[in-house]
Q: What sequence folds into this?
């Protein structure tokens, strides 16, 4: 029978199917961070259990770590926030106690969990990958079945190397044709979410396909898969092709020699069969996608940069209408206001959506030789890992940013969710390359607008949103 | 694991779509390394007028007078009514921990985000999905009636209104059993330890690159 990519990944890891629809699924890779793991380790301890396998787990602190050079200088001891420090220390202690590999706070390989997974080659095509974090879907870009789990499941995976799951339905999101110049992976996924809504993918595993995805770099595919969860799907994935294999080759945990040859042969099968059937198919025309900007408090509240904030008066569904009114009120925007008229206070370039080398380059290209607008109080660039940071510095990108008045920071989640000191002030508008624009996500009362790295960079220079395709840097 | 068989209790509303996990329990409280104590910060940003901090006492903080959970009529509520896509956003299990710690036993909504839905079962909190039209009816009745209670029965898979309407709901059989009996699902899985090992052996023989590359610290 013809199978989808998801069917193949599922079948290859199925230990036991029960009559009631639940199944025991084998997990190949488990990534751990400090926020969702302490209670899981505590559970293991209380029950006197040991991890099932050690060579499957990899841990790093990311959510709480400070990103200023000064605070980072003395490692964990330098974290000023005591509660954050305890959480990071707890991860260190748990990894020590249970014998789990950890990229600790100032290890040059430390970074955001979803960045270090593919980067280190820990997450490979064909694997099942889980992490106590919803953006685990990022790893699906390498042709893996990757999804976020809760803390009880973190404990379950540690103890058994399995999860009890129910198979999801298959959805194909196909982006046909080509993107226009200046339109990026971030715009593609925001446009998809605008189209299907934040619950559109509920109960599905989404495969992203079509010419646009095939032409996309691995970094771009990761950006797209990253936000599958904002489309309601636990897992997003892309078929393996030569781009995938070229990306994986030579990574620290990737196979070598004979094993590499054997692995590549197996990975060639990781695509949906021609005749495979999907439960739901969504198609978009790549050429019609413009740079996107979110205006509201849900990622589906997104419009092209040339557009306007919607008018609730034109919406009939009462729950939707109220949602729009509430969002306008929270965001301090007027119905019908042009996106390009929104005054911005801060710019954040980073997060597991957009903090890989290609994102740094895209932003730097816009920034090069220009200056941050006076009205922008802070423009910060936070690379996704120590390795991304080092590579960017090797290419001189840090200099481009700092010359333009941007801050160049140490790796971590940073102002994506503001668990560390990087926060928006009450009422501040931020052009952000992260994935969630929920109320207070980036700081109490903060107002987030989701955009691509190039769009964020252009906004930092202009002081307001501009269409990066027409951006000349001339703000006079 | 905590069990759930049947529960009857006072109903409170969270009457908006797409209630995300940042709303249910804001991130600053995720710094805790414990599983308990999140109830006082449930819906923190809607519930209080100031910004909540971890490890802070909530006594003396000013309450948002418009937020339902602060109204006298909803004190002691243990069943929450919600709309579409409740629990969307992050995978934080702190969200069901907070609902449970506050005293909720069941959340009834038009739909749930997948990870949140899954996490509820691990914590004896029963998520119930009813059709939007039924949700409309429940919201209407609840607003109209002080002391409105609903009976949720996992055994019969039903929700019973004070007026005697009985709505049935779907739930996976495996999850239902685990919740009814309060089974420890790690124990259940470990009963299959031999099958897991056998699976690993054959898997290792055709995908050896999956094993042995990462060395514990
Ligand atoms: S960067 Fe943001 S979304 Fe990604 S793992 Fe960190 S906090 Fe979560």
A:
């Amino acid at each position: 029978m013809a199978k989808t990519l998801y069917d193949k990944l599922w079948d290859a890891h199925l230990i036991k199917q029960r009559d009631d629809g639940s199944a025991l699924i084998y997990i190949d890779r488990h990534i751990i961070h400090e926020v969702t793991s302490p209670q899981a380790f505590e559970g293991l301890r209380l029950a006197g259990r040991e991890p099932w396998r050690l060579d499957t787990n990899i841990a790093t602190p990311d959510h709480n770590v400070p990103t200023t050079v000064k605070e980072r200088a003395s490692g964990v001891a330098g974290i000023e926030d005591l509660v954050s420090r305890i959480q990071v220390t707890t991860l260190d202690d748990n990894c020590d106690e249970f014998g789990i590999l950890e990229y600790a706070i100032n290890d040059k390989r430390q970074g955001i969990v979803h960045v270090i997974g593919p980067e280190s080659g820990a997450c490979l095509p064909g694997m099942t990958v889980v992490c106590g974090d919803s953006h685990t879907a990022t790893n699906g870009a390498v042709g893996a079945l990757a999804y976020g789990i809760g803390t009880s499941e973190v404990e379950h995976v540690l103890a058994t190397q399995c999860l009890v799951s129910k198979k999801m339905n298959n959805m194909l999101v196909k982006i046909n044709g080509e993107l226009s110049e200046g339109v990026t992976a971030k715009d593609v996924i925001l446009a998809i979410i605008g189209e299907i809504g934040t619950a559109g993918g509920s109960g599905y595993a989404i495969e992203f396909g079509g010419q646009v995805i095939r032409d996309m770099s691995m970094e771009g595919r990761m950006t797209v898969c990253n936000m599958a969860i904002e489309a309601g799907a636990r897992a997003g994935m892309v078929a393996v092709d030569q781009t995938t294999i070229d990306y994986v080759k030579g990574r620290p945990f990737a196979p070598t020699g004979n094993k590499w040859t054997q692995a590549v042969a197996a990975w060639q099968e990781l695509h949906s069969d021609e005749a495979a059937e999907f439960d739901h198919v969504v198609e978009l025309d790549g050429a019609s996608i413009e740079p996107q900007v979110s205006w509201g408090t849900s990622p589906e509240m997104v419009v092209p940069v040339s557009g306007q904030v919607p008018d609730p008066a034109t919406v009939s569904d009462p729950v939707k209408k109220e949602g729009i009114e509430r969002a306008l009120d929270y965001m301090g925007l007027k119905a019908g206001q042009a996106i390009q008229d929104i005054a911005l206070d801060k710019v954040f370039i980073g997060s597991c959506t957009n903090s890989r080398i290609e994102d740094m380059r895209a932003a730097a290209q816009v920034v090069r030789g220009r200056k941050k607008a006076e009205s922008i109080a802070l423009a910060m660039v936070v690379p996704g890992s120590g390795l991304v940071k080092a590579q960017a510095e090797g290419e001189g990108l840090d200099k481009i940013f700092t010359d333009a008045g941007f801050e160049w920071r140490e790796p971590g989640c940073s102002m994506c969710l503001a668990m560390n000191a990087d926060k928006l002030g009450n009422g501040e508008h931020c052009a952000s390359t992260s994935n969630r624009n929920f109320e207070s996500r980036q700081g109490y009362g903060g107002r987030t607008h989701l955009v691509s790295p190039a769009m964020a960079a252009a906004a930092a220079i202009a002081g307001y949103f501009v269409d990066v395709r027409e951006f000349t840097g001339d703000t006079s | 694991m905590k069990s759930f068989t049947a529960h009857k209790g006072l109903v409170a509303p969270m009457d908006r779509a797409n209630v995300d996990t940042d709303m249910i329990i804001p991130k600053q409280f995720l710094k805790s390394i414990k599983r308990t104590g999140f109830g006082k910060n449930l819906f923190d940003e809607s519930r209080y007028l100031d910004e909540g901090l971890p490890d802070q006492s909530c006594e003396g903080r000013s309450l948002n007078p418009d937020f339902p959970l602060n109204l006298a009529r909803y004190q002691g509520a243990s069943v929450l009514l919600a709309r579409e896509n409740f629990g969307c956003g992050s995978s934080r299990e702190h969200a069901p921990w907070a609902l449970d710690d506050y005293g909720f036993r069941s959340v009834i909504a038009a739909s749930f985000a997948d990870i949140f839905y899954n996490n509820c079962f691990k914590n004896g909190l029963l998520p119930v999905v009813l059709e939007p039209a039924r949700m409309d009816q429940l919201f209407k009745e609840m607003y109209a009636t002080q002391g409105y209670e609903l009976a949720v029965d996992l055994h019969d898979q039903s929700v019973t209104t004070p007026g005697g309407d009985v709505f049935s709901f779907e739930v996976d059989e495996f999850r239902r059993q685990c919740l009814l009996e309060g089974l420890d699902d790690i124990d259940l899985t470990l009963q299959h330890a031999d099958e897991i090992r056998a699976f690993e052996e054959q898997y290792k023989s055709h995908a050896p690159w999956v094993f042995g590359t990462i060395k514990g610290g």
Observations:
- Chain B has two domains: 6-183, 184-217.
- The domain at 6-183 of chain B is CATH 3.20.19.10 (Aconitase; domain 4).
